[in-house]
Fold this sequence. Notes:
A four-stranded antiparallel β-sheet has the order 1-2-3-4, with no helix packed on it. The chain has a four-stranded antiparallel β-sheet with strand order 5-6-7-8, with no helix packed on it. A two-stranded antiparallel sheet has the order 9-10. It has one helix and ten strands. By secondary structure, the chain is mainly beta. The chain has one helix at 2-22; strands at residues 41-46, 52-56, 59-63, 68-71, 86-91, 97-101, 104-109, 114-117, 127-133, 139-144. InterPro entries: Reg_prop, WD40/YVTN_repeat-like_dom_sf. This is Sensor histidine kinase TodS.
Amino acid sequence: MQKSSYRFILLFLFVLLLQVHAGQISISPIPLIDQLPSNSVSRIFQDREGFIWFGTLDGVCRYDAYRMLVFRSDLNNSNLLTNNKITCFAEDGNGCLLIGTQKGINILDKKNYQIRHWESEEIRDQWIKSMTVTSDGSIWIGTLTQ
Length: 146
């Protein structure tokens, strides 16, 4: 009988402590969220430096807790994204961000924010569904065959 009383008291204290800690958790929205190019976010990725990357239906955003940088495609500038519909992210061993779109892969050099296109006949203009970089540096790419 005494053993069950101790268990009940311990359980009661445990539940009480959980409620105290639950009251301390706070969730706050990201400021500057209205600066996203689209309300539809398809992917969220955190890189090695801790930056948060948002893939939307109208471009990519990098959030650093202070400001939002936006990257989009432009028909008049071939040095930008090939397509604004972002499908996935990965980071290679050189610290470059690989950006999958509905029209191929873009490689963003995070040191100078230059974007180049993955120049492979098999990948160009493909709808990229997923990417991952293995520990040996190999890049695995999943596409949607049309």
